[in-house]
Amino acid sequence: MKKTYKIDVQGPPTTWMIKKASRCPKGSPSPYFKSAGVIAITSIYEIAKVKKELDPALKDIPLQNVCSAFSI
């Protein structure tokens, strides 16, 4: 009997992509109160496109909504 497995490989977390785009080594010590870095809107758009392609749950969500989900 042959065993088969299904492995779902997902992309990197959004926080990793944001830190990479902002060239910030780590997040803010006090989120929502102190900024850790700056990121361009074009970078947010590119990250949202990648996340939309890789995550099947985001397939039917408009790209603008995906962008606004993590561009607070």
Automatic annotation (TrEMBL):
Gene Ontology molecular functions: structural constituent of ribosome
SUPFAM superfamilies per record: Ribosomal protein L11, C-terminal domain (SSF46906)
Gene3D superfamilies tied to this protein: Ribosomal protein L11, C-terminal domain
All residue ranges annotated as the Large ribosomal subunit protein uL11 C-terminal domain in the record: 12-67
Any Pfam family matching the protein: Ribosomal_L11
Name of the protein in its database record: Large ribosomal subunit protein uL11 C-terminal domain-containing protein
Organism field: Stentor coeruleus
One GO term (biological process): translation
Taxonomy, superkingdom: Eukaryota
Gene Ontology CC: one annotated term: ribosome
